[in-house]
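=== Structure Prediction Worksheet ===
Name of assembly: unnamed complex
Input type: mixed (protein and possibly other molecules)
Chain count: two
Listed entries:
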Amino acid sequence: EAGVAQSPRYKIIEKRQSVAFWCNPISGHATLYWYQQILGQGPKLLIQFQNNGVVDDSQLPKDRFSAERLKGVDSTLKIQPAKLEDSAVYLCASSFLPMGERAYNEQFFGPGTRLTVL
Amino acid sequence: AQSVAQPEDQVNVAEGNPLTVKCTYSVSGNPYLFWYVQYPNRGLQFLLKYITGDNLVKGSYGFEAEFNKSQTSFHLKKPSALVSDSALYFCAVRDWDRLAFGKGNQVVVIP
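=== Predicted Assembly ===
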């Protein structure tokens, strides 16, 4: 089966500019995640969607970050305006079901978008 | 909040020798623990998970992990390391509706 697709793979922008990332999850996966991975750290969840609804965005810096999944399939993550500290790899992942109380569903990760803010 | 710690930044091992990557956890209740691997310029790949049952969990690419409740550890192991195992390894724990990752361990397998 096709994996999680992300684009672009690399992006270089200057601070205060805007940027958007796109993710296409595995077909049939209802749950979609966006993670931020800063160099030397593990991935940190930014936002989780269940179909087209937000399940958890508690760690999303909402003053500058936004995300949507309008039709419950593809998703976009936007940063406006970007700061130097936003330089990171942005990973998209999907799973068939959410991680609930009595179930675990493996998360499949895309290759990521490496963002450099100058 | 649930968390994991990976105490080492880098693990160097000679090809053919046993490989161990350490992870300790801090949870309330029963832990759901995972290992992922990240190769350069690629996303994370799932290796194995512990939910319940046997303390020794077998996963992909010949890896296994041992769950030790008394030591709150979940170390990743491979009996004989390959050069192709050189990568970044992440331990993670389920924290309600999300995965909480450790900072990662760079594994370097020396030919």
